[in-house]
Structure formats: C-alpha cells, structure tokens
Design goal:
globular, two-stranded parallel sheet, binds NADP nicotinamide-adenine-dinucleotide phosphate, six-stranded parallel sheet, single chain
Length: 194
C-alpha cells in the first residue's frame, strides 16, 4: 500500500531506481564515516543514492553535468563535472581519496581505482566487470517490503523522487525519444490512464 502523502508520480518513479540505490549503499556497507564518490549522482539511481547516503551522514561527492550541480549542492553533495580531468578534480576535494565509490554509469573503472583509498569498497550497477577489479556488481529486482520502507521516506519528506515529465500513453513514442536522447532530468513516466 502506498503511504499517505506519496503522489502517483513519486510512487511510480521510485521502485527500480530506489531499490537499486538502497542495495548499492548496503553492499558498500556505507556509514557516516565514509567519503563516497557517486558516478552519475544526478541520474535516477544516483540522486536517490546521494540522498540516502547523506541521511546516513556520509560525505558525498557526485559527478554530474554542470547544469545539475545546483541540484546536488541542495542535498548536501559536492558536485564535480565528469569527463577529462575528473581524478584531479576529485583529489582537490578529497586529497586522500575516497573510501567508497558507487558507479551508476559504467566505463569509469580506471577513475574509480585511481581515487579509491586503500581498503576502499566499490560497486557498479552498469559494469559487471567491476568484480575483476575487486568491486561488487549490483543487480536489483523490485521487492515490495523494501519499497514500502522507501515510500515511507517519501511520505515523511526525507526522500525526493525527481520526475522529469509524465506522458499520456499516446505519446509513448515521444517519451522513448526523450529517453534515448539522454536529456531528461529525472524519471520519464507514461500514464496509461491518460
Ligand atoms: N544493475 C541494476 O540493477 C540496475 C538498476 C537500475 C538501472 N541500472 C542501469 O544503471 C544506469 C543508470 O540508471 P539511471 O536510471 O540512474 O539512469 P539515468 O536516470 O538516465 O541517469 C544517467 C545519468 O548519467 C549521467 N552521465 C552520463 N554520462 C556520464 C559520465 N560519463 N559520467 C558520469 N555520469 C554520466 C547523466 O548525468 P547528467 O544529466 O548530469 O549529465 C545522467 O543523469 C543505466 O545504465 C541503467 O540501465 C542498473
């Protein structure tokens, strides 16, 4: 059952992204003593993981396009631009490296290993080969009981689910195009009742 105070869009946008974010942090055994680097912190999974990590008290550095930096600062995350020079930019913020890395985009393994302090842990949801480098591969399917726990956080106002737009069923092709273009800011939903 959806808790009072959770709207249709938040409830529809949360399942896979929220549970993947949660499982990733649990696999990392993240605590408030950690400095966590999130690759793709402004995406569907990353934005939720960033909020959950901050709730635990961790220091969070998140990669995102500059247009999304304000959004990350607002939830207590230090934003950095991804791409060329990422390792140097993160080192300026965390000179001793980070204790945990969550990869939510893939193809960032070298940067992860360059930034991870000794004994650090790392997970990926987008690169199964992470296990060859001592990391953990996270693969999630929705689970009702755990989802309810996240919905309670949404109802309490401590977890924000970002929705870009809701399309009517007749506009599903347009939704697919926006999704493929990678320009959405938050989840794209299709409301089959419209
Ligand atoms: N293993 C699992 O169980 C599982 C579950 C869910 C999703 N996934 C996979 O995980 C990935 C992320 O899912 P999502 O729903 O979070 O996707 P999403 O909402 O589309 O977000 C992707 C984000 O990646 C960022 N990005 C693009 N290129 C980047 C780069 N080179 N470095 C860092 N960030 C970059 C973009 O940030 P900007 O907009 O700021 O540029 C964008 O916000 C997808 O590949 C998805 O298929 C896996």
């Amino acid at each position: 059952m959806i808790p009072d105070g959770v709207g249709f869009e938040a409830a529809a946008g949360l399942p896979l992204t929220g549970l993947t974010a949660l499982r990733s942090l649990e696999t990392l055994e993240l605590t408030g003593d950690d400095t966590l680097l999130i690759h793709a912190a402004s995406g569907g999974v990353g934005y939720l993981a960033a909020q959950l990590a901050r709730e635990l008290g961790a220091t969070v550095i998140g990669t995102a396009s500059p247009r999304n930096h304000k959004k990350l600062t607002a939830i207590g995350v230090t934003p950095v631009a991804y791409g060329e020079g990422l390792v140097e930019r993160v080192r300026e913020i965390a000179p001793d490296g980070v204790s945990a890395v969550a990869d939510f985009v893939g193809e960032v393994r070298e940067d992860t290993l360059a930034l991870l302090a000794e004994g650090g842990r790392h997970v990926s949801i987008a690169d199964p080969s992470v296990e060859e480098a001592g990391g953990h591969w996270v693969w999630v399917r929705p689970d009702g009981a755990r989802l309810h726990m996240l919905l309670e956080k949404v109802a309490a106002g401590t977890l924000d689910v970002e929705i870009d737009r809701t399309f009517a069923l007749a506009d599903a092709a347009e939704a697919f195009e926006v999704s493929m273009a990678g320009t959405a800011n938050g989840k794209l939903l299709i409301d089959a009742t419209r």
